[in-house]
């Protein structure tokens, strides 16, 4: 998209955009958010008005902010694109359901649109170096893993190897057993029998402290207790807001570092 001027009043409708725009040194004038947001974004965007949730942004609130650029998602905001475009030029990318490379490409697009291409390239180079360095620590003999988000419900939501985090795990040298081939989404639910059929050597669980989740019922089930990962103590837990929702360049760096510091890449849980 060719913009007449370099945008200064940007509204972001996804956390990946909020992350990337902040990393590029620009504070958005409005953002879509839920009550629970990744901690670092809450700090960086303190005082930035909410324009509704990511799934249901308020067109009235966006209009009132007089943006000169809106950043939307191709899937989540498909039905709003025409209306958003009447308010301000709107860039729509697949950031909500992309893979790892898709997130990097989105940052490159934002760098060009915001007149901050050198800054975007620096961030991309830093992440590439971090990934390459971290991959050297991966245990090549480690078995396959599953990455699953545990929302406050009875769902066990797999992040397949085609998702951002699932793809990142593969690039870091860990084999993700879950694929979305033949499915409608790169995140999908699996029941306990399905998990047992894959029987991962490692489990990566994305949870928020204090929330009730599916492990409240699965945790004492003999099927769960017989899983290789559970029996060997290779169950890693990470913050769901960061690992499952954020997706921007800052989040990718934090997640990569946590994969190392936790012992996940080395297949050696830190006690």
UniProtKB/TrEMBL annotation:
It is found in: Cell envelope. InterPro entries: ABC_transptr_periplasmic_BD (IPR002491), Bact_iron-sidero_bind (IPR051313). Keywords: Signal, Transport. The keyword RNA-binding does not apply. Residues 9-268 form the Fe/B12 periplasmic-binding domain. Signal peptide: none annotated. One of its GO terms (cellular component) is outer membrane-bounded periplasmic space. It holds the Pfam family Peripla_BP_2. Coiled coil: none annotated. GO terms for biological process: iron coordination entity transport. CDD domains: FhuD. It comes from the Bacteria. Belongs to the bacterial solute-binding protein 8 family. This is Ferrichrome ABC transporter binding protein. It comes from Deinococcus gobiensis (strain DSM 21396 / JCM 16679 / CGMCC 1.7299 / I-0). The lineage of its organism: Bacteria, Thermotogati, Deinococcota, Deinococci, Deinococcales.
């Amino acid at each position: 998209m060719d913009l007449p001027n370099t945008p200064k009043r940007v509204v972001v409708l996804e956390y990946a955009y909020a992350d990337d725009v902040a990393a590029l040194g620009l504070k958005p004038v409005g953002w879509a958010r839920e009550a629970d947001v990744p901690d670092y974004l809450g700090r960086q965007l303190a005082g930035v008005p909410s324009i509704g949730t990511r799934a249901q942004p308020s067109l009235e609130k966006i209009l009132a902010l007089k943006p000169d650029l809106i950043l939307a998602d191709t899937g989540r905001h498909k039905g709003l694109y025409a209306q958003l475009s009447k308010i301000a030029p709107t860039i729509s990318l697949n950031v909500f359901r992309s893979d790892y490379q898709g997130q990097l490409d989105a940052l490159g697009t934002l760098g060009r649109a915001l007149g901050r291409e050198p800054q975007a390239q620096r961030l991309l180079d830093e992440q590439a170096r971090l990934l390459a360095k971290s991959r050297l620590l991966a245990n090549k003999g480690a078995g396959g893993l599953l990455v699953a988000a545990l929302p406050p419900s009875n769902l066990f939501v797999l992040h397949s190897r085609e998702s951002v985090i699932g793809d990142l795990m593969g690039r870091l040298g860990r084999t993700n057993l879950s694929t979305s081939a033949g499915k409608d989404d790169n995140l999908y639910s699996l029941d306990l029998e399905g998990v047992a059929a894959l029987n991962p050597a490692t489990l990566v669980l994305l949870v928020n402290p204090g929330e009730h989740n599916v492990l409240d019922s699965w945790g004492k089930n003999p099927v769960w207790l017989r899983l290789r990962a559970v029996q060997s103590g290779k169950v890693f837990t990470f913050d769901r807001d960061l690992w499952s929702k954020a997706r921007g360049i800052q989040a990718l760096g934090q997640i990569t570092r946590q994969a190392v510091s936790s012992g996940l890449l080395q297949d050696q849980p830190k006690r």
